[in-house]
Amino acid sequence: MTQAEVVSRQLELYNAHDLEGFCSCYSDTVELRNMDEARATVSSKDELRETYGKKFSNPALKATIANRIIKGNYVIDHEKVEGVGDRLLEVVAIYKVEDDLIQSVLFIRD
Which residue spans within 1-110 are E strands per DSSP? Predict the structure, then answer.
């Protein structure tokens, strides 16, 4: 799979609220981090499963891609997320993909 295909697949599974399928797109040592925060919000696949298991309980949760840039191992998506709070959330997500798995994600939130 290409890097873009891996990221597109995890988005499809995110929108389907398929927790195990979604998690299968990530490495066991995945790290999710918000820009300007020293600590990772998620630092393993188990933590990813726990965090997104809670999020997927909201049937309104859905993300779409407004723009995508691909550079080497990185896929940079401008995402529009519904079902988080009372307004549309716009996020830039920088995915690092190696060996057909997402290794890390850096989020820039508005």
Answer: 26-34, 62-71, 74-82, 89-98, 101-109
